Amino acid sequence: GENVEQHPSTLSVQEGDSAVIKCTYSDSASNYFPWYKQELGKGPQLIIDIRSNVGEKKDQRIAVTLNKTAKHFSLHITETQPEDSAVYFCAVDVTGGGNKLTFGTGTQLKVEL
Amino acid sequence: DAGVIQSPRHEVTEMGQEVTLRCKPISGHDYLFWYRQTMMRGLELLIYFNNNVPIDDSGMPEDRFSAKMPNASFSTLKIQPSEPRDSAVYFCASSLVRGRGGYTFGSGTRLTVV
Lengths: 113, 114
Known about the structure:
The complex is a heterodimer.
Chain A: E1 4-7, E2 10-14, E3 19-25, E4 32-38, E5 45-51, E6 56-59, E7 62-67, E8 72-77, E9 86-93, E10 101-103, E11 107-112
Parallel strand pairs in A: 2-11
Antiparallel strand pairs in A: 1-3, 3-8, 4-5, 4-9, 6-7, 7-8, 9-10, 9-11
Chain B: E1 5-7, E2 10-13, E3 19-24, E4 31-38, E5 42-50, E6 53-56, E7 65-71, E8 74-79, E9 88-95, E10 104-105, E11 109-113
Parallel strand pairs in B: 2-11
Antiparallel strand pairs in B: 1-3, 3-8, 4-5, 4-9, 5-6, 7-8, 9-10, 9-11
């Protein structure tokens, strides 16, 4: 089955700095790569996703890049704010429809004032 | 839309008791998923349904766990008998065919088995 590794497990940045979280996957057939944000006491929430026919996607301060050859993708958050503090999960789906996701182990991001 | 609705939010039960977790997916979503989240194992897929039919239950830990989806608007996850190692947060999520927009998760049920 699919194996997803996520790094780092914890990340602390100063407000206004950038944060980068990386994930690698094993199945070259994977073609859908979402990122989720989980705040304390809540379920994970989709923040951005990318499909394998696209190398980069941006939504305001959040961007995701994908390198299919190397089988890794990254989440980039610019101009971090305290409300960005949360646990972030990458996920991978081989079916293309987002119908069966394998999640990474999560990154605890802390944005310090 | 109210999103994915799970109940109860918290459940504390004694070892050996039956526990039933409930989920109402988003109307129109064809897929429903049950996940378990623990510190040690992260987010684990237990089972998922497509059009009310169980598709993959390979993640169900053992026979004590069972899940049903009698109609498009309701699903249950049952643990009988419950054990302390079942303590976790259980999430239900739903999605459209072809995954447009990805999964939408509920707020979860925090289960504590004492």
